[in-house]
Amino acid sequence: MNKQKNIILFALAAGVVLMLTKFTAYLLTNSNAILTDAMESIVNVVASGFAFYSIHLSARPKDQNHPYGHGKVEFFSVFLEGGLIFIAGVLILGKAVYNIFLPEPLGNLLEGIGLVALTGIVNFALGTYMVKQSKLLNSLTLQADGKHLQTDAYSTAGLLVGLFIIYVTGMAWIDVVLSIGLGLYILFSGYKLLRKSIAGLMDESDMKLVGDVAAVLQRYRRDDWIDVHNLRVQRYGHELHIDCHVTLPNYYDLNKVHDEVSAIDQLINKGLHANAELFIHADPCVPACCHYCRVKNCPIRSEASRVDIVWDKRIISKNEKHFHE
């Protein structure tokens, strides 16, 4: 967790420096498109500050009032970042429309291009590093902040192309068109972050993680794990909460059922390389399971096994045994 905090603090410091650099470029050039990029940098700084707080809070242990931990605060961080990006996009579009009717003269474009190019390189390198670390540390906040910096770098690249064309051709109207395009792109980026955060706050099952769990279970499944269904995954910060139903032979005693459930728990934690808390409901098999059951020498089998069902995210997320697959 300390590593996450250090990364966010570095991103926050870098964001302040880059923001000041972009506003310097705007003051040099009077370019509306550069102002667009600078305004988005304000969002980077505010978002990194809240991201640091959310990582600090999510690291707190579970307590009586928060039995699932504090990890969901990361979704609030992503929501704030997405909301700020969306608002920045609206303001950027408003400024661009204003300059259609009241254009402003441009100057010192070459110096502005150099400063903006420097900020784009730093943002892309820092964003890529944060996204890679988010996968290793299983941090949604680092991922959102890193992707935002990458998005900022991509928009900066488009901005540089436009500024260079303006410098070569002298067609100042391109500045307004470029600002409108970047504003729309920023709006869409903000919407995607808002959508992701709301899904997490509403406990929407993470289907990508469901697919990852299915792949682990399919690869290492045991014959007496007859069926897995109604599997759901929610992310709480760096922790995962998984619940599912597992069908086991109905003649297993309670100790054997406990051993199999524990084996599934350990397998998923090891296979996902994450801290996952599982709630597994054990179901007894019924005769309708026999046609896809892999158990050899089963003493109660009513028909031969004739179907081999591959566990994928579609299959194991269904809230029913797989009688008709």
UniProtKB/TrEMBL annotation:
Q: Name one GO biological process term.
A: intracellular zinc ion homeostasis
Topological relation to the membrane, as annotated: Multi-pass membrane protein
Localisation per UniProt entry: Membrane
Q: What's one Pfam family here?
A: Cation_efflux
Annotated TM spans: 7-28, 34-55, 75-101, 113-131, 152-170
Any one GO molecular-function label of the UniProt entry: cadmium ion transmembrane transporter activity
Residue ranges of domain Cation efflux protein cytoplasmic in the record? 212-285
Tell me, in one coarse class, where this protein mainly resides. Answer: membrane
Q: Per its UniProt record, what InterPro entries does this chain match?
A: Cation_efflux, Cation_efflux_CTD, Cation_efflux_CTD_sf, Cation_efflux_TM, Cation_efflux_TMD_sf, CDF_Transporter
The Cation efflux protein transmembrane domain extends over: 9-202
Q: Which SUPFAM superfamilies match?
A: Cation efflux protein cytoplasmic domain-like, Cation efflux protein transmembrane domain-like
Per the record, its GO cellular-component terms are:
plasma membrane
Keywords of the record, alphabetical order, are: Membrane, Transmembrane, Transmembrane helix, Transport
Coiled-coil stretches, from where to where? none
Q: Give the family per the record.
A: Belongs to the cation diffusion facilitator (CDF) transporter (TC 2.A.4) family.
Name listed for the protein in its UniProt record: Cation diffusion facilitator family transporter
Q: What organism is this sequence from? A: Parapedobacter luteus
